[in-house]
């Protein structure tokens, strides 16, 4: 990929900035960044695109995580085990990814997304304020289960991981959208790191492209996190609904293409 043009790099930089912003607010930046890579490099191996995408993503999640940590009082007693379980889950997902047909995931993900979207829209009070549903060991056990399950999904497939973390933290544990988004960033950082532990030794990262994605992701992640903190849970919830709808349309289209192929 040494012949990458300036025009392609500028296109990817713009996509990565938007992806970093979306990811920082509510997760789901991969909906923008990965398709942009597919358009820019249609002949590249999928593993190259996934690995390069992860380098850009981890730069953005690092920046947004630090911004949330400075500006929102995140409960690290929950966030730390959540992230640790997500790291392990992502490693396991990456290991078994080659054994599971990717097409098998789409119908399941589509059903889950429709349910998540309807549940959020029909319950406007959801996530506006924190109302934790568990305490003590049950709370931490639920956080570990969420981290492991969503982390495994990220390692095996990936798109929309941040949004799934946010919804699980809001819908299962009872956090407000803003704090859930902050915790989701830490967990998503862990899943990205786990994926890179697998990808980097394989030598499949397109580093020139990854550097452009990383810088743009950092800028978008910083601005997105600051805006989310300033506007609060209501704003994060609105962006969440938009991203879930977009993700549903994307996965729905992919599922339809599989059925008619």
Automatic annotation (TrEMBL):
It comes from the Bacteria. The chain crosses the membrane at residues 48-69, 81-101, 107-126, 138-156, 162-181, 193-215, 235-253. It is a multi-pass membrane protein. It is found in: Cell membrane. GO terms for cellular component: plasma membrane. Keywords: Cell membrane, Membrane, Transmembrane, Transmembrane helix, Transport. Pfam families: TauE. Belongs to the 4-toluene sulfonate uptake permease (TSUP) (TC 2.A.102) family. This is Probable membrane transporter protein. It comes from Aeromicrobium erythreum.
């Amino acid at each position: 990929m040494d012949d990458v043009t300036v025009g392609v790099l500028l296109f990817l930089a713009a996509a990565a900035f938007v992806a970093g912003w979306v990811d920082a607010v509510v997760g789901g930046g991969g909906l923008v960044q990965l398709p942009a890579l597919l358009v820019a490099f249609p002949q590249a191996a999928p593993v190259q695109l996934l690995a390069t995408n992860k380098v850009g993503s981890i730069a953005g999640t690092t920046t947004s995580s630090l911004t949330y940590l400075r500006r929102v009082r995140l409960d690290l007693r929950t966030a730390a085990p959540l992230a640790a379980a997500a790291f392990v889950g992502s490693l396991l997902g990456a290991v078994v990814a080659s054994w599971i047909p990717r097409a098998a995931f789409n119908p399941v993900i589509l059903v889950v997304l429709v349910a998540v979207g309807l549940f959020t829209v029909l319950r406007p009070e959801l996530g506006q304020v924190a109302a934790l549903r568990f305490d003590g060991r049950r709370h931490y056990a639920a956080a570990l289960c969420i981290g492991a399950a969503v982390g495994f999904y990220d390692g095996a497939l990936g798109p929309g991981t941040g949004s799934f973390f946010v919804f699980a933290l809001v819908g299962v544990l009872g956090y407000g959208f803003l704090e859930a988004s902050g915790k989701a960033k830490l967990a998503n950082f862990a899943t990205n790191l786990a994926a890179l532990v697998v990808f980097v030794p394989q030598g499949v990262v397109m580093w020139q492209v990854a550097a452009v994605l990383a810088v743009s992701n950092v800028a978008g992640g910083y601005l997105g996190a600051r805006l989310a903190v300033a506007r609060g849970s209501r704003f994060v919830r609105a962006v969440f609904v938009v991203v879930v709808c977009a993700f549903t349309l994307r996965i729905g289209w992919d599922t339809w293409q599989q059925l008619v192929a």
